[in-house]
Amino acid sequence: MSSHSFFALLSRMKYISRWALMRNASSESLSEHTLETAILAHALVTLHNTRFLKTGETPLSADRAATLALLHDAPEVLTGDLPTPVKYHSEHLREAYKQVEAGACASLLGLLPEDLRAAYAPLLSPENDEAALWKYVKAADKLSALIKCMEERKAGNCEFLRAEESLRGILRGMGLPALGCFMEEFLPAYEEPLDGMV
User: Fold this and answer.
1) What is the pLDDT of residue 155?
2) Distances in whole angstroms, Cα of residue 38 to Cα of each of 27, 32, 50, 88, 166
3) Fewer Cβ close by (within 10 Å): the C or N end of the chain?
């Protein structure tokens, strides 16, 4: 592979389908998911900074959160989207998939010229100094999945009901006030038809 094919390979995210084991009323590509995750990560960090920042606490970068979210699933252009029931079936599979994902990240970095690798390395794998931001990216990732489940339910597809219930529980357990605020204040609008939104 060329050391100049990183961006061309990322553009193939539009061909990676999510929710492969589920019957979908509407398909969702990895590109669609990452865009929505980036929008949600930006919103969650903005809510945190605007409404929940403690006195003396340094604001987080909403722009950086959005950038991290845009590439949070980039390794899947090499691995595909491993379905959640498979990925989390056992501790052994989780650990094996982490190794596969780390290898995919290393391979992706190898597709960049040497002088660009340091800029992209922290975007492909969590850095300790950005752990606070990655919490919001993870929350946005789960929130995007919840929204997909809600859309499927609205389309009359009962296939996603259990996933929706599970994701709501996971999100409630994350303990992020900005996330709770988003779910209470903004998530109900996702149930509205277009003419009820505008």
Assistant:
1) 95
2) 19, 10, 18, 24, 22
3) C
